[in-house]
Design goal:
D-amino Acid Aminotransferase, Chain A, domain 1; six-stranded mixed sheet; five-stranded mixed sheet
């Protein structure tokens, strides 16, 4: 059974030490990772990271035309808003099971499958180097439409990163040009997330096994290790404390996605 090739997260410091000439770069899409397989009869199947069949959730992807032979692709199911993946819009579709609700959701927030690797076409391609797989995948551009796109990839460069930040994307992915598809977490594939920062006021905490969990009334944020002591002392003394958090995005409801404690504001 084929498993997904997973990304190894890196810091900006580690990123700056890389030899860019060895890597392709592409946007990090904020959606549902999936294998898309078209069999010889034209039937399309979608499997998520847990290898669960999620085909029924996205009826609009059944209409894709991908040639006449069996093909299997690795990619991301996203809802695009102004060219950027909108995870909040996609989430509204994730747990719908009734056929009527699924059909309605497919019209309100239609999805796009963004393919960034190809695993099978005529033969097993996993043993091929990434450069060769990308060349084969690129030929499928003739089938691109609103529901199917091929991920842009170029030689790694700083300009691509700057433009991805300007577009409000979640981050970037670096892939070793000579890598085969191993179906596991590996340093062949690296992930750099673009985080934002904001100061928030917290007013209570709970003890956890590694430190404390603080809250501002809407978010729960772990502060662990030696960092938790001055935060706890500030709340005990003043009834509140200001901290800086890192997060990926802010939802339309004002919630931070994946907030992480960075520091106490003194």
């Amino acid at each position: 059974m084929v498993m997904f090739q997973l990304c190894n997260p890196i810091s900006i410091e580690e990123f700056n030490k890389l030899d860019f000439s060895l890597y392709f770069i592409q946007s990090k899409f904020d959606g549902v990772r999936a294998f898309l397989t078209r069999d010889a009869n034209g039937k399309i199947t979608l499997m998520n990271r847990n290898l669960k069949d999620i085909t029924h959730r996205y009826p609009e992807l059944q209409k894709l035309k991908l040639g006449y032979q069996k093909v299997s692709m690795d990619g991301e199911i996203v809802v695009l808003k102004n060219g950027v993946s909108d995870f909040e819009a996609l989430q509204s579709r994730e747990h719908k099971e009734k056929k009527f609700e699924i059909e309605m959701a497919s019209k309100v927030n239609p999805v796009t499958f963004i393919a960034f690797d190809i695993l099978y076409y005529v033969e097993d391609l996993k043993k091929f180097k990434l450069q060769a797989r990308k060349d084969i995948l690129w030929a499928f551009r003739i089938y691109e439409n609103d529901n199917f796109k091929i991920a842009e990839y170029v030689d790694a460069n700083q300009e691509f990163i700057d433009k991805a930040k300007e577009r409000g994307e979640e981050g970037i992915i670096l892939k070793l040009k000579t890598a085969t598809y191993k179906g596991e977490r590996t340093t062949d594939t690296l992930k750099l997330k673009f985080t934002k920062e904001q100061d928030i006021v917290i007013n209570s905490y709970e003890i956890n096994p590694a430190g404390i969990t603080v809250t501002d009334g809407k978010h729960r944020i772990a502060v662990n290790g030696f960092k938790h002591k001055p935060v706890k002392e500030a709340i005990d003394k003043n009834g509140q404390a200001m901290i800086t958090i890192e997060f990926l995005q802010k939802t339309s409801g004002g919630m931070f996605r994946m907030p992480v404690f960075k520091k106490l504001v003194m």
